[in-house]
């Protein structure tokens, strides 16, 4: 192995945003991909299902890629795999549960290609041309979570993955603190540490507190209990089964993604569920209401949509009824706070009692400030790159590291696509690679861009006006129309005068033309109508002229 390596670190996602985590560690000519996550659409991404990273740089350098290394099985870390593996034929490394969830994700997308998965555990060591890759257990809300250590002669590049330090963590969730300290003693060149909890002082509350809160809710509920949670939040799902068992209740599991995760986790020993506790949803009528618990999630493992259907009595399997207790054991996704509160209102209107974050039934899966400091103490990094979080979280993490003792020159927050290069005792950005959002709408990957989103935004704001007119080029005359069709702009029956004047305006524009050149005629119709309609309504609908020859 060489005594001096060229080390570069690049984020293709996860910087300045929640989700879409994907980081690259380059050692000499080797590229190691750390996670491959998706992000749910932000406000303004009309009709978009999910967002994944732009992998143009990887496609240009596919011969250098050593593999994709996964930290855990949450969608924001593995959800982009079906789209990426369509284009990159590279091996995927992950723990047993993570790999099983990734395979299930590929099956869900009807993925046909062969993928080489390699199951690792925290004792695995992988040898590559330029580096050695090893792993260490971390504590998160899903079992089999690991951090990744890429060992180089300049020191290790360590990516923590999602973590916290829960002193009450049971066997499946216990972190390998001793191993982390050992990695730190050997020397860590760069620490890529998750920043989601960097604004929260103290420690993240223990899962034991959440478990007790849930048991209390189950004990006090008079009728049915409906628990809404993320499908992949296995620790929370275990709490539900424990609380139901302690209170003599039965549990029905509802939702395709939840059922899939439940079966994978159960069959591989990551859930402990008494046999007689599970019942089919079709049999809940056979039990008294105070013995029934329904565990539910919706499409893509996100529970709020399912709750809305249940509150509106339009869910296929179960609806909320008077006296139910609805326990929302999931934080809202980014930008989803308004939707959460709207959903809670709907549930209350349906006659149920809502229990959410205000009572301790849900604790974050990410470490707060004291835990981030503990990771710094264990790893003792030469350089820190805060990752995984919105920009204010990255800045809070950087400030925390400064208070801990790292100088400003040793802390770097690169933007997505910026290349951070380590050269001896300095770190700096030395270039930029393509990095952005690839939008998934239905089966289309990347065919919706900023122009399409702009059009969708315009349509949502002021609607569309379609102008249909038939012209005879030879006679330079109108043969039919103009007919104006309004959708989402004005209600035509109540705006007859406006439509008549707009029609008259279009006719005037056409009749003034000496020659009928389609492109310029369409442009004049757009400009003329746009000005007129804005003067009359202070709105700018999308104007779509359709000219036919006849």
Automatic annotation (TrEMBL):
Domain Metallo-beta-lactamase, chain residue ranges per copy: 19-212
Q: Which SMART domains match?
A: Lactamase_B
- The source's domain of life comes to Bacteria
Q: Cofactor comment in the record? A: Binds 2 Zn(2+) ions per subunit. It is not clear if Zn(2+) or Mg(2+) is physiologically important.
What cofactor does this chain's UniProt record say it requires? Zn(2+)
Q: Which residues form the signal peptide?
A: none
Q: What is its main location?
A: cytoplasm
Q: Look at the named UniProt entry and state the broad enzyme category this protein falls under.
A: hydrolase
Listed transmembrane segments: none
Which GO terms of the molecular function aspect are on file? hydrolase activity
Q: Write the Enzyme Commission number(s) for this entry.
A: 3.1.-.-
Q: Which CDD domains match?
A: RNaseJ_MBL-fold
Q: Where in the cell is it found?
A: Cytoplasm
Write the record's keywords in alphabetical order, separated by commas: Cytoplasm, Endonuclease, Exonuclease, Hydrolase, Metal-binding, Nuclease, RNA-binding, rRNA processing, Zinc
Task of the protein: An RNase that has 5'-3' exonuclease and possibly endonuclease activity. Involved in maturation of rRNA and in some organisms also mRNA maturation and/or decay.
NCBIfam families the UniProt entry points to: MG423 (TIGR00649)
Q: Which family does it belong to?
A: Belongs to the metallo-beta-lactamase superfamily. RNA-metabolizing metallo-beta-lactamase-like family. Bacterial RNase J subfamily.
Subunit info? Homodimer, may be a subunit of the RNA degradosome.
Q: What is this protein called?
A: Ribonuclease J
Q: In which organism is this protein found?
A: Peribacillus deserti
Which taxonomic lineage does the organism of this UniProt entry have? Bacteria, Bacillati, Bacillota, Bacilli, Bacillales
